[in-house]
Each structure stands twice: as structure tokens, then as C-alpha cells.
Amino acid sequence: xxxxxxxxTDRLRLKEPIIFTTREETQTLRVARRxxxxxxxxxxxxxxxxxxxxxxNTIVLRDLYQEHPRQALGPNYYGVHRLFxxxxxxxxxxxxxxxxxxxxxxxxxxxxxxxxxxxNRIPCVPKGREDTVTQxxxxxxxxxxxxxxxxxxxxxxxxxxxxEINDIIVSYVIRTNESQAWFLAEQMQ
Length: 189
What we know:
With about 190 residues, this protein is mainly α. About 60% of the residues lie in helices and about 0% in strands. It is globular and about 55 Å long.
């Protein structure tokens, strides 16, 4: 039996061999292609890189929210578990929204976990079990990293005259993260 032919169910063979093509990248991660949007190339590259950074941090925060409910302890277990699940779902939607915006701007959103780990700026990503107070502290720090980056992006894009990404940053990134940070801080009272 030849390895270049595919067997069919009727025990016949295809007459044409399978030709394997070489795989080539059509777009690298850090390059924005031309887009039908009215946006200068430099502004598009800045926006893509900034949104990808926010997306990487959002994915890490989302994963923290997914991990922490399994470790929550204490009398508020059920409430904290539900809160973490709700925040996980919101961060998942936010990560998808950021990816869609990056693609709309002509960029390539961060595709793999290894790229997320490389771009992540959230300092506390635990490997072991933690108590609920430590978990909430870590989540608050993660929200702070994202909010500081989001506010810096707003300032930088305003100075550069690039207001294309301000809507998503204010309406989704900042509002979602400020709200979630407030709920977490209330758990610490």
C-alpha cells in the first residue's frame, strides 16, 4: 500500500496523490495589515499592540477567576464561588471583544497560551492553594494592572489623536474591571 493514496470505503484508491504544501504565515503577530478603516498605519499598530497587551492580561485574570473558586474556603464559600464564576464569564466576553477589535484594526490577536504568558504583566499567578483573602488580594492586583494599562492607553491614544480604541477601553475594559474590583474589595470588608 502506498502512503500517498487515501483508502476509500469502497476499497478503491484515489488516483491522485495527496500533495502536502508547506505552511507559511500569512500575517505575523505584531504586524497590522491594511484595513478598510480610516486609521493611520502607526495608530493601528499602536492600537493592536496595546489591545493585545490588555487581552493577555485579561486572559490571565480570567484564568485566575476560573481557578480560584475551586480553592475558596470559609463561611462565604458559596457567595465567593458564584462571584468568581460571574467575573470569569465577564472576563471571557471581554477577552473575545478585545480579540475582535484587534482583528478589526487589521492586527492578529494573541492566539496561544504561550503568547499570553509572554505578554502577561500580572505579577501574582499562584501555582499552589491559597486562602480566600490572598486570592482576592491577587485578583485586586490583577485588576489594578489592567486598569493602569487601560488608563495609560487612553492618555497615549488621546495625545496621538487616535480615538479609535477609546470606546472599547472606557465602555468595556475600565467599567468591567472597576466594577469587579469594587465587588472584590467589598468582600474584604
